[in-house]
């Protein structure tokens, strides 16, 4: 399972930093080839460079990377199992409406491609970034804040982030094997 960004230190919760270090101390370093974690930005964009252990932002994975390096795992990649921003509507009648941050549809559309770009330019140790999520099968959970992380509506109507990601992917194709081989020659 992926590490979830957690700043709490309670009887129920423990910081992802503390959890990972304890896992290393228990000998888990030899038990994985890739470390999975979540890469949410919540209320700030992907270029937010604040580095505080109590701040959950997109750059938080740099702390996890430092723990890995300090424990001899500089050769292992981090995979972001979930990444996105949540354009939950302000009028959502839910007490936890802001639990996952809240941005506009336009911010989500602007920030998602920037998240991929930042990793591409600054974090060669990030191997995979999974956009969370494409769609839900229905609008049955429309009253839940997690519903709004989507890229398209249940009927496949694209949201602005869909077009933004399509444009980004088109402009930055993943190199196939023939491109990589011709670059080596």
Describe the protein's architecture and organization.
By secondary structure, the protein is an alpha/beta fold. Helices cover 31% and strands 10% of the residues. The chain has 5 helices and 3 strands; from the N terminus they run αβαβαβαα. It has helices at 16-25, 61-70, 105-122, 160-171, 177-184; strands at residues 34-38, 77-83, 126-131. The chain has a 3-stranded parallel beta sheet with strand order 1-2-3, with helices on one face. Helix 3 (105-122) runs parallel beside helix 4.
Task: Please render the helix and strand layout as text.
Blueprint: H1 16-25, E1 34-38, H2 61-70, E2 77-83, H3 105-122, E3 126-131, H4 160-171, H5 177-184
Parallel strand pairs: 1-2, 2-3
Helix pairs in contact: 3-4
């Amino acid at each position: 399972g992926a590490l979830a960004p957690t700043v709490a230190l309670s009887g129920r919760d423990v910081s992802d930093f503390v959890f990972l270090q304890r896992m290393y101390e228990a000998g888990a370093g030899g038990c994985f080839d890739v470390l999975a974690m979540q890469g949410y930005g919540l209320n700030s964009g992907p270029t937010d460079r604040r580095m505080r252990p109590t701040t959950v932002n997109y750059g938080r994975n740099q702390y996890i990377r430092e723990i890995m390096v300090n424990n001899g795992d500089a050769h292992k990649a981090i995979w972001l199992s979930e990444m996105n921003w949540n354009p939950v509507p302000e009028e959502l009648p839910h007490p936890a409406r802001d639990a996952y941050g809240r941005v506009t549809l336009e911010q989500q559309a602007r920030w998602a491609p920037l998240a991929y770009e930042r990793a591409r330019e600054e974090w060669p140790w990030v191997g995979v970034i999974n956009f969370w999520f494409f769609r839900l099968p229905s609008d049955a959970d429309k009253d839940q804040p997690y519903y709004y992380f989507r890229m398209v509506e249940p009927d496949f109507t694209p949201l602005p982030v869909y077009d933004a990601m399509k444009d980004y992917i088109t402009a930055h194709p993943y190199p196939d094997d023939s491109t990589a081989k011709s670059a080596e020659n």
